[in-house]
Design a protein that fits this description.
Largest sheet: 5 strands, antiparallel
Structural class: alpha+beta
Order of helices and strands: HHEHHEEEEEEHEEHEH
Distance between the termini: 166 Å
Number of strands: 10
Radius of gyration: 45 Å
Strand order of the largest sheet: 1-2-3-4-10
Length: 280
Amino acid sequence: MTSPSPEQQPAEERDAEQRSGERPAEQAPEQRSGEQPRERRPAERPAERSAARSSAERSSAERSSAVRQPAGQPSGAGQSAGPAYADRVYRSAGGIAGGAMMLLIILWLGGDALVRGTGRTPWLALAGMLFAVPLIAAYTVRPAVFANRDRLRVRNPLRTITLPWGVVTDVRARFSCEVFTESGKYQMWAVPVSLRQRKRANRGQGAPTRSDPFAAPGTETPRTPTPALADQAVADLRDLSERAESRPEAQGEPVVRWAYEVIAPALAGLVLLVVLLLTG
């Protein structure tokens, strides 16, 4: 029995043979070579990305601060509890002006004697200047009072006293400004007491009120008393002492240091002057 020719086969059988002879479609890349399909991660939201970035920045900042901090020192050590402020400085403007004028006069006269003098005159002028200039500068320009939240530093002509507020018991201004401790008292040369300013302040405090020409009729404006400079400085120092007397940083012992930079040249000038006068 002869098989039918391709032209005689039905169209359905030819379509089936063509489909069976076609190569299967290529598999997806994930399923090729027996690989497992990869899980697709959900896209991160902008808020999550910013939170992750901020946490990474904080961790890097902590690591850098840990590297900069010395070993064995706890976190926050050496840092003050409050902000640091500059020292309050109290000085006598009149004393500085008078001392500067005296120094100019002495330097002018002494320099002239050094340049134009003959014989022993230049040596006497040098000895006198070496003796007088340090003392004048010490008693007029040098005195100052420095006060901060931890301690009081009094720079007098011949010595400097450092007093923590914990040892200060009182600050007074009668005929001179003085600071008291349990071991004694120290005078503050930089804050002179002016009895004239104090009397003027007392008169202004007890003066009657004055009328304001621009105010309503019958109203009066009270006078604002202006305290003397020494009394105001003492009030400020008392306020600092009361605030800091219980703080741990304001405790300690008084420290006194002599001003050898003033004493040494003054003694040298005095010895040279005495020798020149005795051998003349």
